[in-house]
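Hi R.,

Here's the chain you asked about this morning:
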Amino acid sequence: MTYLLTQIMLCLLLTSILGLVVGWLLRGVRCRADINLLKKEVQVRGDEIKRSEQRIVVIKRSLKELENACKQEQQLAQKRIQQLEPYQAQAVWLRQELDDMTSLKDKQTTHLNTQLESLHSLQHEIKVNETIIQRLESQLRTQAAAKNRQVKELMSRIGEIQPLAEQLNAKDHELRKTAAINKKRINELTQQLHQLQTQTNPGKQASTPMPANPVRSQAIPGIETPIAKPDAPNNQNRTAHATATPQSALSTSPEQDDLKKIHGIGPVMERMLNDLGVTSFKQIMEFTRDDLEHVTAAIKVFPGRIERDDWIGGAKKEYLKKYANEI
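And the predicted structure, written out as tokens:
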């Protein structure tokens, strides 16, 4: 047992000695590597120091140059100050003027601010007026739409009334024919009555004059006096006179005006007037009573349409508008 213990102790001593030796060797290797690194760093630092010394030399030279330049600039500044001394009085005067101008500008700015405030109030009023105008425009649009509807309804009604008017014209023509026939009969009866009176009272023939118009002097039952018209020969003479006299107004004119500008004349009416030879405002403004009757009978419009729409007045206005410069 003692032998084994001694051997174990010896082995432990030998291993400890070997560990110490190996550790010392490894430490020496590390120290040498650290020394080499330190030497390299020292060399690098020395190179950097040399470079910094060279930079310091260059900086010293530049500082000397800057000092010389500063001295020269100071000398130039002193010279310029000496040159600017006479201008100091002008600078003071200019400062005073600037102060005055600034005071004037302040006053003007206050005045402008007051004007701007008044403009803001005016803008508010304008906005209020614009809203009122928009409301009125909307109301006018609604009224215009309603009026357009009424116009459309009236146009449809006029289209419905036109055939009735044609029927009325036909009936009027028949009534005129019957009135002419009745007037002939009335004349024959009055002549017969006159003959009978002369036969019964021959002494009173000179004292009883013949009535000038028996239709107006006597009212015969069954016949209305307003319908009574002249007899057929007289009516033919009157129509012949109506066609003969208005040749000055209804003759074709070299002037071709836009008759639709007159109130109450549309495209169809203008075409019918052109067929009758009426092509200018001057012809319409020179219409006589016979011309009006002739045109009314030719175009078959409602009675009194020309007078109601005042074609003559409208023609005068349009004629003056178009030919005012020539007049």
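The radius of gyration is 65 Å.

Let me know if you need anything else.
M.
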